[in-house]
Design a protein that fits this description.
Layout (H helix, E strand, L loop, with lengths): L2 E4 L2 E4 L3 E2 L4 E2 L4 E2 L4 E2 L4 E2 L4 E2 L4 E2 L4 E2 L4 E2 L4 E2 L3 E3 L4 E2 L4 E2 L18 E3 L4 E2 L4 E2 L10 E2 L4 E2 L7 E4 L4 E6 L5 E2 L8 E3 L6 E3 L10
Parallel strand pairs: 2-5, 3-6, 4-7, 5-8, 6-9, 7-10, 8-11, 9-12, 10-13, 11-14, 12-15, 13-16, 14-17, 15-18, 17-19, 18-20, 19-21
Antiparallel strand pairs: 1-2, 21-22, 22-23, 24-25
Length: 198
């Protein structure tokens, strides 16, 4: 399938991109992607087949958004985030057919280095802290602290998520910091404070 280069980004011919959207250099947009008005996508990102990026969504650099992921109005994604196939960010806690609510003041953030597994659903006004990990199929109903691994419906903490991606199985009540057995990094778990990485 053919592609065109638009301001140093590679765009599949079947992608639908609003003229007001901004796409950074080195970003690849695959087939049947839709990018709505005033969306901003950083550099060196990959937007997979059939993904939908709603109006005013902001995406950082080096973000990978896999096939059929849905990012709706209000979502802010920081750098180096992985969003698996079929992930859905919802934006209206009280949806009704025929009723459109004013979402102009709504914003929720996905922190740097977060990984979100396939088919997870992130409910509105839910922030995900840096380097957290969301298990495949999880329903995230409340904020996830940095370096926390969650899974299930509703998603609950199951351990600490290291910078390297390793999940350290440890209950939140045992201790606040731990060392990764794979890479040796020390991380602070289940807290919103400053990262322990040096």
């Amino acid at each position: 399938m053919g592609a065109k280069t638009l301001e140093l980004a590679t765009i599949a011919e079947t992608a639908i991109i609003d003229p007001t959207a901004q796409i950074g250099k080195g970003t690849k947009v695959w087939a049947f992607v839709q990018i709505a008005e005033h969306a901003v996508i950083g550099e060196e990102c990959v937007i997979g087949n059939g993904a939908y990026i709603d109006q005013y969504v902001r995406i950082g650099n080096r973000v990978r958004i896999h096939n059929k992921a849905l990012l709706y109005h209000g979502v802010v994604v920081d750098d180096d985030v992985f969003i698996g196939p079929g992930v859905c960010f919802t934006n209206d806690a009280l949806p009704r057919s025929g009723k459109t609510r004013d979402l102009s003041g709504k914003k929720w953030k996905v922190g740097k280095g977060v990984s979100i597994g396939a088919n997870a659903t992130i409910l509105p006004d839910t922030n995900i802290g840096e380097y957290a990990m969301i298990g495949a199929g999880s329903i995230v109903t409340k904020n996830v602290p940095k370096h926390t691994a969650v899974c299930g419906n509703p998603a609950r903490a199951v351990g600490a998520a290291c910078y390297c991606g390793n999940v350290i199985k440890q209950k939140p009540t045992t201790k606040k910091s731990t060392r990764c057995e794979l890479c040796g990094e020390s991380i602070t778990m289940f807290e919103r404070g400053k990262s322990a990485k040096k």
